[in-house]
Every structure is written in C-alpha cells, then in structure tokens.
Amino acid sequence: MQKTLRDIAEFLGGRIIGKEDVIIENIRPLDKAGSSDITFIASRKHQKRLAETKAAAVIVNAPLPASGKNLLIVADPYAAFGKLMALYYPPNHGYEGISKDAVIEEGAVVSSGATVFPGVYIGRGAKIARGVVLYPGVFIGRDSVVGEDSLLYANVSVYHECIIGKRVILHSGVVVGSDGFGFAAPGAGNIKIPQTGFVQIDDDVEIGANTTIDRATISQEKTWIGRNVKIDNLVQIAHNIVIGENSIITAQVGIAGSTRLGKSVIIGGQAAIAGHINIGDYVMIAAGSGIHRDINSGQVVAGSPQLPHRQWLKVEACRNKLPEMRTTLAELKRKVELLQEQLNKKPK
To answer: What is the Rg, in whole angstroms, of the alpha carbon atoms belonging to the chain?
Structure first.
C-alpha cells in the first residue's frame, strides 16, 4: 500500500510538520524504519532516538526538535499506530463463502455474506449474520446468535442459546457457555446443579485464546460481558458474572461466580477474585492480587489478601527486611528477659 503523509494525516486527524507529499509504503519500528516507512514515538524515553531514525515520517504527540524530519502530530501516537496498522494490514482470511464441508443443521440461518470454513458445525436455530467468519472446527450450538462482522478462530465453541454481538473476536480455543461449576454437598455427594442460563457478549469484545466463559445457573439469567471489553488468554469467567464496558482483563485471571465488575476496570495477570463481590467503576487490580471483598469505584488495590495500593507498597518495602527484623526482635526479647530476671532478684 502507498499513501502520502497527507492522506495519513487526514485519516488520523493529525497535523503535519514537514513534507506532506512524502510516500509511505510501510509501518516499521523506530530503529528499523527506512526512507519509505512511518514509525511512532509513544514514550518520552524514546524521544532522544528521533534524530537517529531513518523513517520517512514519525508520529508524535507534540512538536519535537527534529531537523529535517517529517512529523505527524496526534493526541495519542500509540492509538494512531493501531489505526494505521489496521489500514495497511487488513485481515485476509484466505477463504470466502460457505463451505459444503461445513455441517449446518436444518433451521439454522446463515447469511450469504458470511464466511464458513470447512469443518464448522452450526446447530439448529442458530443465526449467523453478514460478515461473520467462522474458521475450521468452530462449533455453534443450537439457537445461538453471532452478530455482524464477528470473527471466530479455529476450534472456538459456543454452546447453545448464547449471544455473540457485532465485531466480536474470539481467538482459538475460546469456550462460551460451558456449565458453571455448581455442585451441592461438595466433597461428599458432589450433586450437579444443572446450568440453564446463557452468556451474552456485547459488541466489540475481544477474547484471547483458551479463555472460558461459563453460562448462568438459572434460565433467563446471563453471564454478561459488556461492550468493548478486552480479555486476554487463559482467563476463567465463572457463572453469572457481569463485566462492565471497556474493562481490561489480562492473562490467567480467575473470577468466581456472581461477581460484578463495573466499567473500565483493569485487572493484572494472575489475579484471583472471589465470588459474590462487587467491584466498582475504574478500579485497578495489580497482578497476582487476591480479591476477597468489595472494592469501591476508583480504588487501586494490590496484594493477597488485597490492600490499598499505597499500603501494599509499604508492606512490600518491609518484606526484604523481615530476617533482620526477626533477629533484632529476638535480641530485644532476650534483653528484656535478662532485665526481668535482674529485677526479680532485687530484694522487695
């Protein structure tokens, strides 16, 4: 693809300092960009490398001293980079149409504008909208819905009666609508509680490989992933969870049943969140945290069990000193015992 810097500025809504008619053929890192490439600087620590790059143009967030460099000024260079990548490298699935080697049960409705690879299975009553792409090995259960322009990579499983919104991306191995972990008399009878609810995933959600989302326990109830939520690989979302719009959940997080997350919550990797708690809007949870109680909106927490982030930092600052503190405490205890013995020997 070839575009002028002027074209790119119009696309990104940016302002040019330098030549507007320079041709951009590719997008490359700062240190590898050449005379027909565009690159970006999103961090102040990389600004000193601006003079070294051979790029035809550099996306930045403010005018910078750069003699002879063509600059494109935008509010957020990293976001602009993402939009430009999508423009220059649109997805190419390498297949079009509905394969005769897909299994589509009677009563399923598949748009003629969908792409269905060989080896896909679509159950009765399911609805597949225009622009959907289903890779080999995808299973769509009965009466489930997949909205326009959604992309399901190989071996995604969507159980029965689940709802997938528009422009949703499910990476390989994602399971939507599996049974929640519900058993009576645990450790004794282990009596299974049937899971009869469903999962709803709203528009513009992306879910990483091998993440699992359980259906709600009771009919007409749902596990609900809100609009524009982004979930990383290997995340467990249990039954009846609600995740508010724009939230971010990174890899290996586990969230137990019936917990509710507000909007724009950010959770670091390997955090564990107990069930039946409420997490407010704009909460940030550090990686590896163990969350056992409600968190009010706007809070930042860390540690296991959870602590306010500033308090956790103070605790962590003491951790390396614990052996020294233990030795000191033992010495003080010995001195106090000796002093007590001396006091006891004095005549009353």
So the answer is: 28
46 is catalytic: no
- Rounded to an integer, what distance in angstroms lies between the CA atom of residue 223 and that of residue 211? 14
The CATH number for 3-88, chosen from 3.30.565.10, 3.40.50.2300, 3.20.20.70, 3.40.1390.10, is: 3.40.1390.10
* CATH code of the region 103-310: 2.160.10.10
C-alpha dihedral, 94 to 100 to 101 to 103, nearest 10°: 120
Annotated catalytic residue: which of 160, 239, 276, 309?
239
Q: Are strands 15-17 and 71-73 parallel, antiparallel or unpaired?
A: antiparallel
Query: Rounded to two decimals, what is the model's pTM?
Result: 0.89
- Please say whether the beta carbons of 161 and 179 come within 8 A: no
Interval 236-262 mean pLDDT: 98
How do the domains of the chain map onto residue ranges? 3-88, 103-310
> What distance in Å separates the CA atoms of residue 315 and residue 307, rounded to the nearest whole number?
9
